[in-house]
Each structure stands twice: as structure tokens, then as C-alpha cells.
Amino acid sequence: MKETFNIFRFISWIAIVCSLLGSVLLFIVGAMKTYAAYTTVFLGQVTNESLAHLDTSEVATTYLIKSLDTFLIALVLFIFAHGIFTLFISDKKSKNKTLVLKWISTPNIGRLKNILGEVIVIILFVKFLEIILINLNNLSWEILILPFSILLLAISLKFLGLGKENHE
């Protein structure tokens, strides 16, 4: 029975490959949004009608914030793929381990969840900045729902303590 589960762990390659492909796609989309910021500043082209009421520099800033958001999601997919590979595919006893940054290492599924949760909080914060910038002249109290939600998510992540190393 153990051999059957050992063979089925390789099905996680589907998640790894799809996450890496999605990550590459989002890096390309992020680069395209950065390019849109440059064309807005240097060529005066505003491709999005909903941003037409903003100044050129504000439109470029909005594109750059959107690209930052896209790059962060691409990194989440990359970290997820690396974590799944580390947890389910790689040989833990291998002497030829490649060194990775300490914050991206995934010794357990809780640590992977914690990394993903932290990055999601940052993504939501960037999304909030984007919303504020686009609606700067039309703010209402309802816009406080998003930062309040971000605060609750951050506090819950802190209290959950996912992936804390056990020093036994």
C-alpha cells in the first residue's frame, strides 16, 4: 500500500507544471503592464478608458501598481510550485540539495500555507492602493472594508502560526 501512495505522489507534477506555466504567463502580463506605463508617459497613450480622468503620471502609476500586483501573483505561483516540489517530489535524503533562500524553504505544508498567506495579504494591500489611486476623487467609507479585511487576515495569520519550526 505504501508503494501505491509513493507512486501517486507524482501526480503533483500537474500542480507544479501548471503553476510554473501560470507564473511565466503572469510575468509576461506584468511586463506588458510595465510597458503600458512607459507608453503612457512617453507616447501619451492611455489604453484604458476608465483611467482617462487621471493625469498621465497617475495613469502610469496605476499601470505600475497593477504590474506589481501581477508580479506578486506570479511569485506566489512560483513559490507554490517550489513548495509542492519540495514536499512531494524531491528526495529529502539527497546530498545534492540546492540551496534556496530561507524564507522560501518549505519543510512542511504549514510553512507553505504561511508563505502563501503572507503574500496574499501583500497582494490585497497592493490592490487596495490601486483602488485608492483610481478612485481618489470619489472616496466613500465603504472603501475601508478592504483594509479592515486585510488587517483581520494578517492578525489571523499571526495567531494561526502556520509552519512554525518546532525546536524539540
What features would you describe in this structure?
- The chain is an all-alpha fold and 168 residues long.
- Helices cover 68% and strands 0% of the residues.
- The protein is built from five helices and no strands.
- Helix 2 packs antiparallel against helix 3, helix 3 (56-89) packs antiparallel against helix 4 (109-134) and helix 4 (109-134) runs antiparallel to helix 5 (145-160).
- The longest helix is centred in the middle third of the chain and has 34 residues, at 56-89.
- The protein is elongated.
- The two termini are 31 Å apart.
- The mean pLDDT is 82.
Topology (SSEs and partners):
Elements (H helix, E strand, L loop, with lengths): L1 H7 L4 H31 L12 H34 L19 H26 L10 H16 L8
Helix pairs in contact: 2-3, 3-4, 4-5
Tell how many strands the DSSP assignment holds: 0
Q: Any low-confidence stretches, pLDDT <50, length ≥5?
A: none
Major sheet, described briefly?
none
| Helical content (DSSP H or I, runs of 4+) | 55-70%
> What class do helices, strands and sheet pairing give?
mainly alpha
Termini separation comes to 31 Å
Computed over alpha carbons, the radius of gyration is: 20 Å
Could you give the order of the helices and strands?
HHHHH
Count every helix, treating DSSP H or I runs of 4 or more residues as helices: 5
Backbone shape: elongated
Mean pLDDT: 82
Strand content: under 5%
Task: Report a brief summary of the structure.
The chain is mainly α. The protein has helices at residues 2-8, 13-43, 56-89, 109-134, 145-160.
